Amino acid sequence: MSDPTRPVDDLPPDEPGLAAPDALASALTQMAGLVLSRESVDTALELVTTLAVTVTSGTLGAAVTVVDERGKRSRAASGQAVEQADALQYELDEGPCLTAWRTQQVVRIDDTTTDGRWPRWNEAAGRLGVRSVLSAPLLAAGESIGAMKVYGTRPLAYGPHDEQVMRLFAAQAAILLANARSLGEARRLSRQLAEALISRDAIAQATGVLLARGAATQQDAFASLAAAARHSHGRVEDVARSLVSSVIADNARPGAP
Q: Are both 58 and 172 inside the same structural domain?
């Protein structure tokens, strides 16, 4: 009978703790096509975390943590216990996943009952059945945008081999999230440009109205719009649109010249 306290790295390939070569090869093949597929990012992340659970032995579940301007949140969590373990990290602002994100290094816990780095989180996670943890940072263009982790139900569940596998999964998840973020930024920029063009047109039209009403120059007309905006505690674009709308409404009235 194998020694359950022996590190995973010392186990022969046919014992629990190391992914079977064919299972890992299959997982990596599926991952290779993710970026080119038409699946949504959330669906793709769910596949990545599912594969991480499949190829690591004794794993309770996996999830991806994203850290951005909206704060810290989990995506593609594979179970309630995983969500709870993640939520504890965010609440306590400590734990292996947040440390992996902050240090851009792989973090491993061999046993939550003896690890002393994050005592509050380790104790709470242990009550959820978490004994081992392996977390890898999500790196995109040198920036850490989060972390991916697996939670194990037994101590010494993960070793250096699993660390390498987790780096591969985390790299794939980082690509997916970085691409999604780039697409989102491109869409926001497009909206901002469209709004800027609309604002420019509205201001140009309003300036023309004021010139027709007697403003000496374009600068004077714009200064009038700016003064009205300050008086109303609004934006110049809003004042311009309101003025143009009122002119259009006046012209649409019966009997208007």
A: yes
Q: Tokens 């649109």 map to which residue?
A: 241
Q: Is residue 169 part of a domain?
A: yes
Going from the C-alpha of 76 to that of each of 125, 136, 183, the distances in angstroms are: 19, 15, 20
| Residue 218 belongs to domain with CATH number | 1.10.10
Nearest residue to 101 via CA among 163, 150, 165, 144: 144
Residue 256 lies in a domain: no
Question: pLDDT (tens digit, 9 = 90+) per residue, 48-72?
Answer: 898 889 888 889 999 999 998 889 9
Question: Rounded to a whole number, what is the largest CA-CA distance in the chain?
Answer: 100
pLDDT tens-place string over residues 73-106 = 999 999 999 999 999 999 999 999 999 999 999 9
Q: Whole-structure pTM over 0.70, yes or no?
A: no
Sequential DSSP letters for 111-165: -TTT--SSHHHHHHHHHTT--EEEEEEEEETTEEEEEEEEEESSTT---HHHHHH
For residues 53 and 146, the answer to whether their CB atoms sit within 8 Å is no
Residue 219 included in any domain: yes
